[in-house]
Design a protein that fits this description.
The chain is of the alpha+beta class. The protein is 22% helix and 29% strand.
Length: 157
């Protein structure tokens, strides 16, 4: 009723060793490949080759009326004004906080008071955001001036 099937091998006697050797060799190289050294290149998603860059000009109208101008080249689109300000060596600045809480306490030794402070325009338009959240789109010009809020608004008219 039941029939026992005979097992047949497709590998002739004496040919079994090359088959086992091949399997072991493939396994060995597979393991070596997994444990060998490798290099990984990390790509910063904020900096791509297609990202536009340009020049940002920062002008400071100082208390005595003199002006200092800095042209910063190769600024990536979307760079915050805070990051550029922190990178400047001159004029000397005190910047408190960071990001949404960043605040310019003083520029060139002139400190913000209860009635006056450092205001800025971007391409002639009065800024409506803080330095830590203002994203720049080069080419652009940022102009800082120590003034009252009322004077700054009057300059816009």
């Amino acid at each position: 009723m039941f029939q026992k099937l005979a097992r047949t091998s497709h590998v002739a006697p004496g040919h079994l060793f090359p088959s086992i050797a091949f399997t072991l060799l493939v396994s060995f190289f597979g393991l070596v490949g997994c444990t060998g050294t490798s290099s990984t290149t990390t790509v910063d998603p904020d900096l791509t080759e297609s990202e536009s860059t340009g020049t940002v000009t920062i002008e400071f109208v100082l208390e005595d009326g003199t002006e200092k101008t800095h042209a910063i080249e190769d600024v990536a689109s979307g760079t915050t004004l805070e990051s550029l300000m922190r990178d400047l060596d001159e004029p000397k600045m005190e910047i408190g906080g960071e990001g949404t809480t960043a605040f310019i306490h003083s520029i060139d030794g002139v400190s913000t008071s209860a009635t006056q402070g450092w205001t800025y325009t971007i391409d002639g338009e009065f800024a409506k955001t803080g330095v830590g959240t203002t994203k720049l789109e080069p080419p652009t010009t940022v102009r800082w001036k120590f003034t009252t809020f009322e004077e700054a608004m009057a300059d816009q008219d």
